[in-house]
Amino acid sequence: MNPAEPKLNTAVYIHRRLREAIIEGQLQSGSAIRQDEIAARYGVSKIPVREALVLLEAEGFVTSQPGRGASVTELSAAEVEEIYLMRLGLETILLERSLPNLTPLDFARTEGILHALDSDNLDPLAWQQLDREFHSGLYRGANLPRIQATVANLHGNLARYYTVYQSFGETFRVQGQQEHRAILDACRRQENAEACDLLRHHLTRSSSTLIEQLTK
Amino acid sequence: MNPAEPKLNTAVYIHRRLREAIIEGQLQSGSAIRQDEIAARYGVSKIPVREALVLLEAEGFVTSQPGRGASVTELSAAEVEEIYLMRLGLETILLERSLPNLTPLDFARTEGILHALDSDNLDPLAWQQLDREFHSGLYRGANLPRIQATVANLHGNLARYYTVYQSFGETFRVQGQQEHRAILDACRRQENAEACDLLRHHLTRSSSTLIEQLTK
DNA sequence: AATGGGATAATAGTATACGATTATAAGAAA
DNA sequence: TTTCTTATAATCGTATACTATTATCCCATT
């Protein structure tokens, strides 16, 4: 009855927990996911676990082979590049549609996120969430929920690689922040095309940097 | 043991059947989907039916409310427009990446599909499939399987509206074919940018035509 | 007639149980 | 040893059964 404790679908609950575990690195790429084990760990049956896995597979977090069960998806360099390419195509649309509708308040809020991102004692998970908030904040005015959801999911699929490769964070973050500020600046000046170009550059550069780490 | 009869996951089987039924209009937009009924119809239990529904929901074919079950997703005009916008962003990427890798054989094959599309006694379902083959044929050289799968799914989500509104097919198809030929022609001439522009135009125009029908 | 309970039916959601498939290990034959 | 076979264990996949939730209907009250 407590609205603060909404009755949660077991499958939805398991889905969230597994997604978190993958993003945070507790479930590593390639590791097998045993239905019985998950069910036992959370004190539920296999049915909702299986439903959660179906959804996770559709979202790309998990790969399953018939009869052999599921494992955390391992992304090749080519697949990472493809995800960034997809983000590029979709996020430029979001930015174009969003910019005319953004208010000074939106910009201020986004500025705040940038400030938080400057902090040098962010754990990778927090950093990744703020990075995501920065981008989605710029798309707030787009009013394209499907595309936004797709982009959020793509971001989620890359997230665990950021949390894994914390080591390369330093230069990656500094450069990222420069690019973030440049994008926000162009947005404030209502320079639509320039902002999109900067976003494109930011994503392309992030892509190469991450792939460089992956193939090393 | 017969390789022509590969042992199929029940959930996968149900998923395919329901997807077909939605695209072909046997399950109409907004109609409720009762788990027990589907299970009884195909002689299976609810478990694989539920898994199929989870996947269909992730793909956008079905909308479910907790405790109340699932129904075939009804797309608003805004959502149709958003899907076309998404296709636009992704398909231009596919075309750009694919074009340099397409061979004369690919073009000939696509030409053949265009020819088939000229036939005036196509049922809406066949037309929709050929239309899909035309587009995906042009992206064959892209080697971006995730994006291709996403685009195919978006196409699938629009498909049932084509089969429903067969009536407006005549002019829609003729104009579509003109645009298809123009796109293929530009591709053959390796005019990358022109082909993308034509594709953009084709998708934008298709979007408005369909929405016009929907809001009528 | 309209509205508001409360019993009943219909349906969703999940656990348990079991058969089917796949992995693992141990022993026999080369 | 290596490879093949066979037995065993682990795990997946699905049907059945039960509980919880939601919808429907009837009747009382206004």
What do you see in this structure?
Two copies of one chain form a homodimer. Chain A is mainly alpha-helical and 216 residues long. Chain A has two domains: 10-72, Arc Repressor Mutant, subunit A (Orthogonal Bundle), CATH 1.10.10.10; 77-214, Four Helix Bundle (Hemerythrin (Met), subunit A). Helix content of chain A is 70%, strand content 5%. The first copy, chain A, has nine helices and three strands; from the N terminus they run αβααββαααααα. In chain A, a hairpin with a 3-residue loop joins β2 (62-65) and β3. Chain A starts with 9 loop residues before the first helix and ends with a helix. The model of chain A is unreliable at 1-5 (pLDDT under 50). Chain A binds chain B through residues 9, 11, 47, 50-51, 54-55, 58-60, 66, 79, 82-83, 85-86, 88-90, 92-93, 144-147, 150, and chain B through 9, 11, 47, 50-51, 54-55, 58-60, 66, 79, 82-83, 85-86, 88-90, 92-93, 144-147, 150. The first copy, chain A, binds a DNA duplex (30 and 30 nucleotides) through α3.
Number of structural units classed as domains of chain A = 2
Report how far apart the termini of chain A are: 53 Å
Q: What's the CATH architecture of the largest domain in chain A? A: Up-down Bundle
Rounded mean pLDDT score of chain A = 92
Tell me the major beta sheet of chain A. 3 strands, antiparallel
User: What's the β-strand tally of chain A?
Assistant: 3
Spatial ordering of strands, largest sheet of chain A: 1-3-2
Provide the CATH topology of the largest domain in chain A.
Answer: Four Helix Bundle (Hemerythrin (Met), subunit A)
Our count of helices of chain A gives: 9
CATH homologous superfamily of the largest domain in chain A? GntR ligand-binding domain-like
Low-confidence stretches of chain A: 1-5
How would you classify the helix and strand content of chain A by structural class?
mainly alpha
